[in-house]
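Weekly structure sync, notes
Attendees: PL (lead), two postdocs, one rotation student
Agenda item 3: pending single-chain targets
PL asked that the sequence for the first pending target be pasted directly into the notes so everyone works from the same version. It is reproduced below exactly as submitted, 98 residues in total.
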Amino acid sequence: MLSISYPNSAITIVFDAVGTLIFARPTVAEVYLSTAIPCGWSGTLADVQNRFRSSFSSMSGRDLDFNTSESLQRVRWRALVGQVFGELTAPQVDLIFE
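Predicted structure, written out during the meeting:
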């Protein structure tokens, strides 16, 4: 008989949902682009995708303690959107973020 023992601590499973479990249509980049254009941003969809990829890379590893909450994620995403649309003013980025 197979016996499995588990440690006394909790087991955690983490999923990277978007692009793994969830495939949004329109894409996140398309939604952000459609909101950024009326704010005066003149980039392309490829620009948004490339900037998000770059911003994600530059932010990776910052949350190594893996603590999270809705408020922490809002702050993180607002900073990410600010990096992607860095040419725009803070109020314009706020509008795109919301």
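Discussion points:
- The CA atoms of residues 41 and 88 lie 7 Å apart.
- Helices lie at 28-36, 45-59, 70-84, 90-97.
Action: rotation student to compare against the earlier draft before next sync.
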